[in-house]
Amino acid sequence: MVFAILLSALIVGFTLTMGRVPLAVSQPVTIPAKTVKGPIPMDGANPVWESVPGVVIPLSGQLITTPMHPNISVKSVFVKAMTNGKEVGLRLEWIDQTKNDTAIGPQDFRDQVAVMFPVNTAGAPPFQCMGQSGGTTNIWRWNAEWQKDIGKDSAGIWDVDDQYPGIFWDFYFEEPAGGVTYPDRIGRSLGPFNSGIWSGNIMSDPTLRVSSVEDLSANGFSTLTTQSHQDVIGNGVWEPSGSVKGGGYTGPTWRVVVKRSLETGDANDTQFKAGSSVPIAFAVWDGANIERNGMKSLSTWFTLKL
Fold first, then answer.
1. What is the pTM of this model?
2. Residue-by-residue DSSP string for 79-106
3. Distance CA 226, CA 249 (A)
4. For position 111, which CATH number holds?
5. Dihedral of alpha carbons 92, 101, 234, 66, sign
6. Is the pLDDT of residue 5 over 60?
7. CA 236 to CA 100: how far, in whole Å?
8. Cα 152 to chain center, whole Å?
9. Residue 2 belongs to a domain
10. For residue 13, is it within any domain?
C-alpha cells in the first residue's frame, strides 16, 4: 500500500514537473490558535476574530487519483484559529465569485470547505489525500447546501419542484404514522417511500444533522464515512462584496466558522490538548467550477498550534 502511494506520487510529480502545473507549497507553516476567554463566536464577522492572526494556505488541484482536477478556481484559503481551553474554532475565508448552495439539478454542485486531521496525532501524519490504511483521518466538511437547509425538516428543504417550478410531477404516497394517508408531491414523501430518509441517510434527512458541518472519517480514497455521532458545528456566510483583511482578497467571499470541543471521547475523532501541535490540511470545492468529490482544491499538511 505504502509502495503504491509512493510510486503514484513519483509518477504524478514527474508529470506535474514536465507539465509545469503549480502545486501548493510544502514549507513548514504553523497556524497559531489565539487563546481567548469566553465562547468562540460562530459569526465570522464578530470583531473577536479580527484580533486573531491569520495564515494564507496555498491550494492546488487534486492530481493523485481520477478524476484529476488541475483547473482549480480557488488558489488559497485564509485561516484563523482560536481556542478557549475547552473548544477549538477555525475561521476559513476564500474568494468565490458565485454562491452555489443547491445541488438539485444534475448540472449543479455545492460550495464546500473541509479541514482534516489525523486521528493518531503522534508521529508522521498519514497520506494527505484522506489518509491511508492504518492512518485514519477525521474530516470536518462544511456544506453550503446544508447551511441553506438549517432549521428545516425533510418537507422544507429545497427540492426538485422548487428548482423547476414548471416540472411535471407524479403522486407519491406519504406515510407519516405507519399508514398511508394521502398522496404527496415528488420529493415530499415520508416513510419507506423516501428511501434516503428511511435508510437514515444524513444527506437526505436534515433532522440528522447537528449543523452545516458533517463529521467524517476516512482512511484512503473511497472510504469517506459519516460518523454515527456528529460533534462539529459550523456557520457560513457568503459576502457578495467581501474582503479578507490580511489575506489580500477583495471580492465575493465565503466566510465559514467550524468549532468543536477539544476532546469528545469518540474514538473516531481527533482529540486535542491545550498547548499541543496537530497536523491539519484543507480542501475547497467551487460548485460553479463543477467541483465535487475528488475534484477540488487541496493543501498539504500544515500545523495547528493550540
1. 0.84
2. EEEEE-SSEEEEEEEEE-SS------ST
3. 33
4. 2.60.40.1190
5. negative
6. no
7. 12
8. 20
9. no
10. no
